Amino acid sequence: QVQLVESGGGLVQAGGSLRLSCAASGFTVSSYAMSWYRQAPGKERELVAGIGRPGSNTNYADSVKGRFTISRDWIKNTMYLQMNALKPEDTAVYYCNVPDLGVRGQGTQVTVSS
User: Contact 17/9 with Cβ under 8 angstroms?
Assistant: First the structure.
């Protein structure tokens, strides 16, 4: 069964860091393009970062470029989002996603206080 489970969200002060994890099962993370997106109340869904296959090229939203880093660990079959220099506007529910499989995780809440 294909499944994604996010973790690592929480409450952090502005300027702090968090690392989100997306544990995959039922497929190999290195075989598919994957992405993180976020949804804040009253705002449109925003694609935050993506990582391709198999060359692992990455792309980022302008709003997070230079602060967030997407990566994956083939051995742990997990994708990550390292978030540094967090801002209150980064507050949202973050989801990992595999477009080609049509699957996403349940989401993890990130709240950044000012």
Answer: no
Count how many Cα atoms sit within 13 Å of the Cα of residue 60 in the half-sphere of its side chain.
13
Distances (CA, A) of 27 to 42, 85, 94: 33, 32, 21
CA angle 3, 34, 96 (to 5 degrees): 55
Contact between residue 61 and residue 75 where contact means Cβ atoms under 8 Å apart: no
Q: Return all residues near 6 (Cβ < 8 A) that are at least 6 apart.
A: 20, 21, 22, 23, 94, 95, 96, 105, 106, 107, 108
Tell me the per-residue pLDDT of 59-109, one tens digit each, with 9 for 90 and over: 999 999 999 999 999 999 999 999 999 999 999 999 999 999 999 999 999
Q: Across 8-57, where does the E strand assignment appear?
A: 10-13, 18-25, 34-39, 46-51
